[in-house]
Amino acid sequence: MEFRVLGAVAVTTREGGPIALGPAKRRSVLAMLLLRPGTAVAVDRLTRALWDGQPPRHARTVLQGHISALRALLTAHDASAHGVALITQGQAYVLRVPGPLLDSHRFDELCRLARTRREPAQAVPLFREALALWRGPALDGTVCSPVMDAAAHALDDLRLAAVKELAALHGQLGDHEAAVAVLRGEAAAHPLREHLIAALMGALCRTGRPKEALDWFHRTRGLLVERSGARPGQVLTEAHTAALQESGTTARRKDRMTALRHSCGTGTGPVPVTRTRAARPPEPVAVPESLPPRPRGFVGRENELMTLDAATAGSPAPLVMINGGAGTGKTALAVQWSQLRRARFPDGQLFVDLCGYSAGPARDTTSVLRELLLALGVPAEAIPVTSGGIGARYRALTAGRRMLVVLDNARSSRQVRPLLPGGEHCVTLVTSRERLGGLVASDAARSLPLTTLPAGQSLALLTVVLGEELVEAEMEAATRLVELCGGLPLALRVAAARVATRPRDGLAGLCAELACEQRRLDLLDFQDTGVARALGLTARHLPGPALHMLRVLGSHTGPTLGVRTAAALAGCSPRRAAETLDQLAAAHLIDHTGRDTYAVHHLVRLFARTLTPESTSGNTPKGRLPIHDHQPRPSSQSVPSPSPASSRSAPRPV
To answer: pLDDT higher for 260 or 328?
Structure first.
């Protein structure tokens, strides 16, 4: 007899045949007992594991029924002959299982044994044997509840620790390709585990693939910003810096070899051993390629792409700003155009997230310039000490080159100016939720406003994410969903993710729920990604009067409003109302539709209604706003709780 929790919870006979355990709740009871073999597990804890939230009145009766069924099952398979017994101790239950019969126990023993080995070659097979015990996600097939989720997460942490140790051992043996092979799949399955991504980046650099390491960094950084507004932590930032340095070293090494070959009169072939000393070549400059991968599911925006083509052609050192509200897809457009036109920039492409609208502080200009110099191949020890020196070195290195610089998520013109390259053949793209009019005045920047998607492109986005068959089968509901999301790409993607994880409800089911305005924002908040969260990151930077104006606009239901109407709602003078409305329009929270008239997107209006007088009264510390970390109200969870019969193997939130 064997008990498994490292994968689907299961019990097998001595011959390896599975024993039918019954429903998910029964497997969950068994899993909770197996996680603490030989230890009393209280009835209250078992109850919390089986029901997410308030358990039903008959919960104890249901639990006792599952315990009785498990006892009958163990008795039927002569479990006592293997030393297995399920007993009652007061208000708790104890499952006695010999360690060798439990896969998690064998996993711990093999890992412990591997860590006692002095030679990496002896430890590697032990870790591999331990990891082979995993047969899918931990506690698969159990119910979804905070208790079960925490237990599964803890087991997964143990597995990932073993994966990292195995990769490190391969590295000690000099087999960095094996380390990459061990880490790559786990990094893809856990895209937000920064320590895991950092380990993979290090292994890739040691195999001579710093560009691929930088791609992993940008992918992870994008997910962190998208899902939680967070910046990469120290371990991932350090891995990024190391990858940049390795990228510059690799480029310098290639340039030196090329220079040496040409100095010997040959353009190819090995460098001769005996040769005259060539003149010292000029300091080589790396060709950075730090663009993130092309955004998945990108559709439409043909006119905007053509506008970018026109705006970046002809004039010297063109600077183009992509401005738009939260969730309109500014970064996606910038990256899509950059990847399509990267051949225009043979001297490199640089991408930097300035974190102007994120949960943490905006990036420091000096640290960004250091990062750019590292990407350009400047050794860390050769970077100037002063901010002025760093900026001058950056402009000198970019002069005379054909480069693309993408400055994403900018907060202000002042943040951008020191980062503009020095060459007339360099193109700079800036994305921001602000208009950044200062760059128009000082640097002749061109502005490209980005609004919501038209209906046709919105439907195309749903089709890309959900599949043509599903959208065509419910075309009427898909059209209605586009209206309820207001063509906002972020809202459409969140809605599509919700449909994908609840396929039985379909598009029509989600539309019926979204029709309720009180629930709409909650339903457009999927785990740590949502419309309210994105809007909150914009609102947190508003001055007090503008934030107050935004709150009162939530009560206005007309298609447009004028300055005098806004003044009446806010209880201020028309002049003051005009100033605050302009501030909201500059932040793309409202749209300027004509002289003294404005329009409010319905999702922004719903967000405004969630603001409280306390958050707009000036009593909240500057830069903080309670609504920013928007959480769904208890009456409507962002992701519906599974029914009691739901199992961990069912689709889960991502």
So the answer is: 328
